[in-house]
Amino acid sequence: MKGSRMTVNAASKVDHTDELIGLLENQSSLYTHRTELTEQQSRVIGSDFEDQAQPGEQLLKVLSQRQRVIDQLTNVHEQLAPYREHWSVIWSQMDD
Questions:
Q1: Half-sphere exposure of 20 toward its Cβ, with a 13 Å CA cutoff?
Q2: pTM of the prediction?
Q3: pLDDT at 8
């Protein structure tokens, strides 16, 4: 999916359903992962630092992971842009 360019015009029916579903599933998975990392970040911040070895390193690790997920979400968002721009045409061409 990376690097693919979806083009749509009203005259030609092109089935991008599989690609669209894949992008949306990827996006959903990334949001779920981001939520898990956010919860992990809260636990690290809220825990008693005396019980942790290197709490700063743990926090930086979680923040780094969250940034990678956000970067991936940005990429998926960019890949979904053509679908958003031509949503009415795509929607009209989709099967029930």
A1: 16
A2: 0.74
A3: 52
With b for 16 or more beta-carbon neighbours within 10 A and e for fewer, the 84-94 pattern comes to eebeeebeebe
Asked whether residue 51 carries a pLDDT value surpassing 60, the answer given is no
Contact 31, 70 (CB under 8 A): no
User: What is the distance between the alpha carbons of residues 36 and 30, in angstroms, rounded to a whole number?
Assistant: 10
CB-based contact 82:7 (threshold 8 Å): yes
**Cα distances (Å, whole numbers) of residue 75 to 52, 56, 66, 69, 81:** 34, 29, 14, 10, 10
Domain range summary for the chain, segments of one domain joined by + = 17-93
Answer whether 41's CB lies under 8 Å from 55's CB. Answer: no
Tokens of 43: 């636990």
DSSP classification of residue 86? T
Alpha-carbon span 29 to 48, nearest angstrom: 31
> Letter for the amino acid at 93?
Q
